[in-house]
Structure formats: structure tokens, C-alpha cells
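User: Can you predict the 3D structure for this chain?
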Amino acid sequence: MPRPRVSYSCTACGAGSSRWEGRCPRCETWGSLVEVTAESSDLATGVLEPAPPPAALTSVMEQAATQPSRIAVSTMPELMTVLGGGVIPGSVVLLGGEPGIGKSTLLLQIASVLGQAGASVVYVAGEESPEQIALRAARLSLAGGGVTLSSETNIDALLQALSDSPPNLLLIDSIQTLRTDAGSSAGTVAQVRECGARLVEWGRRRGVSIIMTGHVTKDGAIAGPRVLEHAVDVVLYLEGEGLGPYRVARCVKNRFGSTDEIAVLEMTDSGLREVGDPSAALTQERTSTAPGSIVTPIVEGTRPLLVEIQALVAPSGGADPRRMATGIDFNRLLLICAVLSRRLRLPLGKHDVIVNAIGGLRVTSPSADLALALAIVSSLRDVPAAPDLAAVGEIGLTGDIRRVPQLQRRINEAARRGYRRIIAPPDAVPALETVITVVPVATLHEAVELALSEYPQPSDLEVSSPGGRSP
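Assistant: Here is the predicted structure, written as C-alpha cells:
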């Protein structure tokens, strides 16, 4: 009986250590080292295959010159665009998201569409029984032709069973449920690292596309070692509010396409469906007469879209005012509040400030600074902005308004949705074919005076916001 070998591994970065430490020596994360017990012969437990012969450089260049065929889901063109046009054979996609966000539903829809198209699909259900998968498919009215279900969670037995007849697409739900013959339980750092490495190697040698889901931590990162994200080809996050209808598929890594692309999906009774016009969907329920609401155009990847920023400023009941942000970077909120307090002399030190990006979208770009600041001032003064007004621009620490990238595309998107004015950084010029009026401002003080100088007239309050509604 080989003697167990005890080591410690970091749950954040996957670094190993021979002894326990309070802080990881590599990533300096506190309390992330966990004990990993493995047999001394663990390396011999896996199914090892002979390495392929070295390829000549000329043949490699010839393969690179040809466009690889992609597996595409015809009913989800936007999602395929996020993946770079489809899934390349032999590639591995890691899909992360919070529990209940729709990861398993999305995998089942992909399996159903590709199975009907004639592709061979194997769905490995490690978290649910085949009966539960069948009930979900019936509820979503999905056909199961061409899809094979498996509940095998032992990685060696699974790959051995699939080696005789490799499928076109292998779906793993989830990577944290797979295990090897080692002594540790499924979901540990060592198991996730080993199972992920074997799947990546097996899929690339046989040209099998693999999509596997992964759990996320409380910080929103995929649970397990960071080396797993480095090994896969595409990392995709499914974001959104669990109780809301909209989901955002965001690509943060893609070896075959651009990153930071998004696809907006809506959860319906028949599963996830793509939203054709995200700007209209995210602003259709906006109340134009409500204080603390400003629309701003952002750019996600190559797509411009409009997002409603809401703010609520209320007197604080304690000595320390609260700051809360949903869908907006918390540090960015603190920066904007500090600039407003210092440059505009606003008494935010005595008020709670709560901000929200409507629709479950996560706004990280500094281009939303101006809209966020105007929403806060609008709520503090209890004065709504004009219903046809949008705002875009980054705010510096001195209160100046700075340019943002792809400004013209943002202006055009606001004009397309019917907005007539947009407050923008200096030197912003609208395109000739647009009917929107660009109001350039150099300082935050100018922007506030232009957006909230006077309360709209009663006739204006009855006009619905473009893409929205009146109460």
C-alpha cells in the first residue's frame, strides 16, 4: 500500500505547497490553502496514450491557412458570434455562472439543436439524473434525437467508454462533479485540475468539441484552480439577476475570436432565447418622469447598447452613510461620490447612495461615469432629466469630462433609439445622417446645469421616453 502524500493547494491560483501557510505564497490570498491527499502512484492511475508523432512545420502552416469548420447552433446566432462564429472541433469551452442562472438549460438547448441537425452529442449529467434531464427537456419542448445521456462521473471510465465512438460534441455538467481514482473527493482543487487536463488532452487528440460548466465562488470567479481557465480555449460567463428575465453571456477569453463580446438572452417558459434588440429590451420599462434615471450608451465588444442607470439618494439614518451598487463597480461609485462631494459641494456625506444598472447587466466601462453622476444628482435634487436625454463620458478626479472610445457608435445607437440629445465629452460630433443633438461639456458642473437646470414642463412629463413608457 503506497504511503499517502499530503500537500496543500491554493483554491484561487492552484499553486502547491508542501506545508500549510496562512497566505498563498504566489497570489497572496489569505486562507486559500487546502489539504490535498494523494497516493504516490497517482500519476499512473490515469489513462495515458502514446503521444502523436511530431508534425512537420510545413504541414502545420498548411493547416493554419485553411479555415476550420465550426459547430454552430442555428437558433442562437448571437451566442455563436460571442464564441467567434461557432465551436471549433477539438476546442474546450468553460461556461461559468451562479446556481440557477441557466447553465444546464443552455447546454440542453444546444444539445437538442445540434442533435436534430445530425451531430452526435453526449450529455454527461453529473448533477442530475437522466430522469431529471428528460423532464426538463419535456418541459422545454426539446427533441432528444441524436443526444446520448450519461451519468458516469469517473473520468477514466467515461473517456474509455467514449474512445470507441467519439461524439462530435461532449457536454459536461459540471467539471466539479468529475473525479479520478485518487483518494480525494470530487470538486477539490486536485480533482478539478486533473479531470480538466485529461478532458482537454482527450478532446484535442480526437477532434471532439467539449463544453463544460463550472461553479463560481462568492466573488463570481469560477471555482477551482486558475490553471483550468488557462488550459481551455474559451471562458464564458452567464450573468444576470436570478429573479430577472435577462441573462448576459459574456466572453472573457477566446482563442478563436474577440473577447468581451456579449449576447443578451431572455429566460422564457421554453428556455433561453436571444434578444434581437438589447437596447430596446433594457430600456422599455423606463419611467421617463422618475428622478434618478439616466440612459447611457455603452459598448460591449463590438456591440453598442443602451443601459438605464438608476440612483436613489436618501438621508442616512446613522453616522456612516451606506453605498450600494448593483451591476456597477463599487469602487467607481465611491470615486463618483467623492468627485460630486468635492467639486459640486453636494452633501453626500449625510446621505445613503444606492445605484443600479437595470436588466442585470454588469457595467464596468468608465464611459458610464457621467450618467451615474447625473442620476445621483437627479435623485438628490428630486428633479428628473428630460425623457429624450442620454449621457456618456468619463469623469476625472478634477471633475472634467474625458473622451471615451468608439464615441460615434454610442451616439448613433442613442439616435437609433429615438433620443434627441446626448451630453458628451468635448469635440464630440454627430454623424451627418443622425438627427441627435450632441451637447459637448468640459466639466461635470456644466453637465449638471444642462441636464437638470429646470424641471420639465407638464407637457413634457406626459411624453414617453424613447423605448420606454410613462407611468
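The mean pLDDT is 84. The first helix runs from residue 57 to 65.
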